[in-house]
Amino acid sequence: MTLALTLDNASVLIFALTGALAASRAQLDVVGFIFFAALTAVGGGTLRDLLLDRDPVFWIADATPLAIATGAAVLVFFTAHLVESRLKWLIWLDAAALAIAVAAGVSVARSMEVGTGVVLVMGVATGTFGGLMRDVVANEVPLVLKQGELYVTAAVAGAGAALIASLLADGTIWTTVACIATTFGLRAGSLLFGWRLPVYKPRPPRA
Amino acid sequence: MTLALTLDNASVLIFALTGALAASRAQLDVVGFIFFAALTAVGGGTLRDLLLDRDPVFWIADATPLAIATGAAVLVFFTAHLVESRLKWLIWLDAAALAIAVAAGVSVARSMEVGTGVVLVMGVATGTFGGLMRDVVANEVPLVLKQGELYVTAAVAGAGAALIASLLADGTIWTTVACIATTFGLRAGSLLFGWRLPVYKPRPPRA
Amino acid sequence: MTLALTLDNASVLIFALTGALAASRAQLDVVGFIFFAALTAVGGGTLRDLLLDRDPVFWIADATPLAIATGAAVLVFFTAHLVESRLKWLIWLDAAALAIAVAAGVSVARSMEVGTGVVLVMGVATGTFGGLMRDVVANEVPLVLKQGELYVTAAVAGAGAALIASLLADGTIWTTVACIATTFGLRAGSLLFGWRLPVYKPRPPRA
């Protein structure tokens, strides 16, 4: 299994868990769990593959991600009541999935002939769109809108770290490690310690 | 006209009626009716064609669906005040369109070289995404989120029925009949008699 | 630079400003501004390119639009507090971007072998989907839903004007001028003078 495929499958698993947790918050049945798990799990990578005109889309080429998402959804359906805060689990798993999916997006984009800016966008899009679709369809405020939390910012920094690492140690695992560590580190720092960039504050117009 | 095309056009017509009814609830002008009718009518099939890399997308190859959606929208604009409950019509027409669109998705996917799991997903995606886009853009709670109603579940069961029927009587109309009857039957049973699967109920963590 | 590319870049710039203004209303950080600017700026054109199977998508072929969107987002982040009503700016810039993007969509679609109805749809889709995605992700009521305002209607009329102009003066700039003037003129008239089409009003069913 190639690195890109491994990363895709890992992010599929973790995003599927977050999708199923969102379904549990909406009190759906087990098929609803599978629907949200699959939507969240393959959403970002599907957008990436459509944009890059990869044919076929990764989960059409090999349906393993669908099986993973289904398994994760069923697992959560029967065990979610065991955890103390489903929202907390959702947010932390989302952070892990975001980090891995950014790395997956960067890895796929780098294997194709596209510019540096496009690689960065593909990392961010692969990382953020699955969760975004989950939140929009589940009628929740998208995590990208959470004021003063590092989310898109963490994804951009992680993709940037991968690009810098690729200059220093191309073709090695370090590109992926740098990406995941940066994205997850910044997101975790934001959740735990309130790390943030200055946010826009409307001020009265100058006199 | 092939079976897949007939199914696409039938689901386009009925989904277009639901899109126009959604526009009537938002009190838009006639062009707004056409916009929502077209979005709902071709949304699911467009996603399916993009995912399967069918080129061109069905309504670009032949603009008949756009004409059907426009006609349906104009019709609803001038007659919707005649019906007693527009929401009730919307929900029942949506059930019919869902059933036909699942069959259309399965039919197209089966004509391409993709695995069984992908056929099932294409049926469900074709069936649900038009209505999902209608509800998200119209700022209404998506029907897929309606707690305790069979919706995605009906679509999955219908696509599954088509796959089983195809083992028994491949290449015949029975595949389509099984799909439509199962999807619509389950959805109707859910609306009329409250048929449902057990839904997730958060319980306190075990001691 | 071709006409279609010039129009794409102009609409990218103005839509990016509206995306950044939406981010300012959500009080995001500068990376959030860039995210919303890019989403709004390339959303409509990306959908158009995916539907028409243009490969590669315009901002993958040449990353200039991403640079434009980033610059616009940073500019707005540091200057938005200087304007008196950010919502007013957002709405008027959106009107300008809508007009230019409809022209860009029509221009690209006319260069491909598609029917008249499809050209019209591509104009409207290119014009409206960037703003629609901005509003859906930012959790605001989509402008297409604003009751009694010409929005989709202005886009359809503009695309229609381009088609008529192309019959009279094909291959000239007048097609584009007619499209932009019609779209922006109707939208502006709607905002300033309340121009509108009759909207649907539910009436009691006839006795």
From TrEMBL, chains A, B, C:
Note one Pfam family from the annotation: Gly_transporter
**Claim: Membrane is one of the keywords in the record:** yes
Claim: Chaperone is one of the keywords in the record: no
Q: Where in the cell is it found?
A: Cell membrane
Task: Indicate where this protein is primarily found.
Answer: membrane
Q: How does it sit in the membrane?
A: Multi-pass membrane protein
The protein depicted here goes by the name Trimeric intracellular cation channel family protein
